[in-house]
Amino acid sequence: xxxxxxxxxxxxxxxxxxxxxxxxxxxxxxxxxxxxxxxxxxxxxxxxxxxxxxxxxxxxxxxxxxxxxxxxxxxxxxxxxxxxxxxxxxxxxxxxxxxxxxxxxxxxxxxxxxxxxxxxxxxxxxxxxxxxxxxxxxxxxxxxxxxxxxxxxxxxxxxxxxxxxxxxxxxxxxxxxxxxxxxxxxxxxxxxxxxxxxxxxxxxxxxxxxxxxxxxxxxxxxxxxxxxxxxxxxxxxxxxxxxxxxxxxxxxxxxxxxxxxxxxxxxxxxxxxxxxxxxxxxxxxxxxxxxxxxxxxxxxxxxxxxxxxxxxxxxxxxxxxxxxxxxxxxxxxxxxxxxxxxxxxxxxxxxxxxxxxxxxxxxxxxxxxxxxxxxxxxxxxxxxxxxxxxxxxxxxxxxxxxxxxxxxxxxxxxxxxxxxxxxxxxxxxxxxxxxxxxxxxxxxxxxxxxxx
Length: 452
Known about the structure:
The protein is of the alpha+beta class. The protein is built from 12 helices and 23 strands. The longest helix is centred in the first third of the chain and has 20 residues, at 2-21. The protein is globular.
């Protein structure tokens, strides 16, 4: 009976999490919600998670949620057979089995088990792989577990999917035009130094997900006080926002950034299901009056999705391989299949930063490997491991890296990312540069050199 309770609870939590992704937007429920950039990012991130039912792995039969030793064995076997690397990043995996089985024999509660599972998965020293207990579901997926159909409230600030790893501060990436943040005078490039009086501190290459979520989401009427630094010659000020509906968020958009020669710009905030279609439609719109002589594809702060069809707009060919890095494991050829939808000659620049994740690693990697684009900006995130979510017998999750990408010469991009041909740090105030931020301007300058 207890096992059934945990499984039902787990399914309810997951259902609420994913239904919440599709029920965000305007406060007025009679209107069709606009696809807010941060919300679309959540959809792209959550779409990358595959959930596997709780089945006995490696012959391990688990009696129920109180079978702590059995659940540790189940988790160990999942990692042993499915993890992307058979060297387990230097961890002695057989020895870890012996150690954690002994520790599991002394576990007396689910909370103790979850702590132990977290420690065991942590032995991999892999930021993609982790145990997710029930109280971490909300933070893991970056959203609030509100009832399905409930309108979401937001500040109108976009910082998803997190700051670039080279960023020193938590920077506002975009602001929705109809939002409390815009009304309060917060603009693109502002720096958030504290939330409700608590300093925002970078830990390693990132900031706390809880902090990033607190800046964006909450319930209607909630208040958050942000300490905002708005320029090099200004002192930080406290701005209190009462969360409400948002609109006019800069999502997918395109524009002509230079008329002579004609250079187009396309912002690609994620590579979700209709991304390739939208990109090609944007190109056609940019060429409605005359053909482009250069194009900038901006995949900065893009959490991923699937970019293969988007690459096929520009080029085709073999990029490398994908699969496990384990002896005897067959890897799949990573091929971009044509026919090319646009052309293979118009110069293209791809803008990347340390928050260009997953498919936004694959897109510049393929474009560079196939000689179709010049990469400008900073190294992409190097988040090329594919993750599968494995559910355990107690209804908790293990999110495990199960595959990764390698280029034709065998180079693995995980943890490194795509290195730009033209390295351009954005710097502290680079987003505030006019008329374009520093990296967009560098893309224009690079295309001008190629065209002239």
